[in-house]
Amino acid sequence: MELTWHGHSTWHVVVGDTELLIDPFFDNPKTDVDPEELDPDYLLLTHGHSDHIADAGAFPDATVVATPELTGYVQENFGHEHTLPAGGMNIGGTVECGDAWVTMVRADHTNGIENDPDYSAGMPAGFVVGDKKPTQESDANCTTFYHAGDTGLMSEMVDVIAPYLEPDAAALPAGDHFTMGPAGAGIAADWVGADVVFPMHYDSFGPIEIETREFVNEVKAAGAAAEPVVLDGDETYTLE
């Protein structure tokens, strides 16, 4: 599995022959990529804030995976014709996306469409992407990536995501102000039980600027077994 961070919360994930793009927002200082350079098969959207869906319209041929409310919004406003499943999915569901399996999990955050305050975007979410369908039986040969979306600390990380979905890697928001900061992300790194953790959702604009060494220090202070890895923008990490 290849994980490429394009700044903020934007991740390009390759599982086998399948490409997934999570939360497309390329107007951030960590990326030099033009959205037109990418051609994802699936577009995963955690919630409706503009810094997570701003560039969704650049991928009209991608199949959208999001809540029913957000799916309907991007279909109407960005012209997407394909969704999975038809009409969207919801918290706790798992869908097969080519060579990947995608499970939608809870995130503690607000939601809504900022340029249309009367439009609901449904529940905010995170995604767990794996190369096998999750079951109650532990599978050491399954490779799994947890994208936490925008969230604060929540008990579901330790009660559900860690024991059931067993992420090998996790991308955790660390910019504070709108999500958990480095301290919360450090605790989350311990709770989710991943082998490697990445900070995201930071340095894109003033209120969420951080020193990434704080994230590294907080992961260690929490006693997490995870290795904290700070990627450069557009850098790829191979998860095996």
UniProtKB/TrEMBL annotation:
Alphabetically ordered keywords of this record: Hydrolase
Single GO MF descriptor: hydrolase activity
A matching Pfam family: Lactamase_B_2
Domain Metallo-beta-lactamase: 7-201
Domain of life: Archaea
Family matches, as NCBIfam families: PRK00685.1
Sequence similarity: Belongs to the UPF0173 family.
Protein name listed in UniProt: UPF0173 metal-dependent hydrolase C467_14784
Organism of provenance: Halorubrum hochstenium ATCC 700873
